[in-house]
């Protein structure tokens, strides 16, 4: 249960930047990310998605497995994120709480659609597989390879 890739986007619509390490602030999110300090709704601090779900989608649609295609902050491997809703856990030395599933939207659907796969079809395939929105509960850092530890 590890963090395989880390991404931030400095502003809305800007290309994502891959990072080896990010710094997080409690209640604010990822320093340097477009959503830092934005709190229109719970779970906006950080987004996670499973590498396995991205790979599944890419395999089913004969696409190159590009782990940054969903625009989530953290790509995890070996942990079922849906099970972390309403659960506290740590990644690296950062404590967080899973708030809700990160369901697909039109932006994701449009980004992944093509001639043979409509925006609606993309959204439908990602329902329940789009990752997790979390609230950051402590200050700290997350680095590539950090372990996901679930509180018992």
Helix content: 10-25%
- Count up the helices: 3
Overall strand count:
11
What is the total domain count? 1
- Spatial extent as radius of gyration: 15 Å
- CATH superfamily heading: PK beta-barrel domain-like
- Physical arrangement of strands within the biggest beta sheet: 2-1-6-5-9-8-7-11
Class, according to the CATH hierarchy? Mainly Beta
Largest sheet: 8 strands, mixed
Coarse morphology: globular
Structural class: alpha+beta
CATH arch. level architecture: Beta Barrel
CATH-defined topology: M1 Pyruvate Kinase, Domain 3
Strand content: 25-35%
Order of helix and strand elements from N to C terminus: EEEEEHEEEHHEEE
Defining traits:
152 residues, alpha+beta, 3-stranded antiparallel beta sheet, 3 helices, globular
Secondary structure elements and pairings:
Layout: E1 2-8, E2 17-18, E3 21-25, E4 29-30, E5 46-50, H1 51-60, E6 74-77, E7 88-91, E8 94-101, H2 106-112, H3 119-126, E9 132-136, E10 140-143, E11 148-150
Written account of the structure:
This protein has 152 residues and is an alpha+beta fold. The chain has a single domain, classed as Beta Barrel (M1 Pyruvate Kinase, Domain 3), CATH 2.40.33. 16% of the residues lie in helices and 32% in strands. α2 crosses α3. 30% of the residues are buried. The mean pLDDT is 91.
Give a nutshell description of this structure.
The protein has 152 residues and is α+β, with helices and mostly antiparallel strands. The chain has three helices and eleven strands; from the N terminus they run E-E-E-E-E-H-E-E-E-H-H-E-E-E.
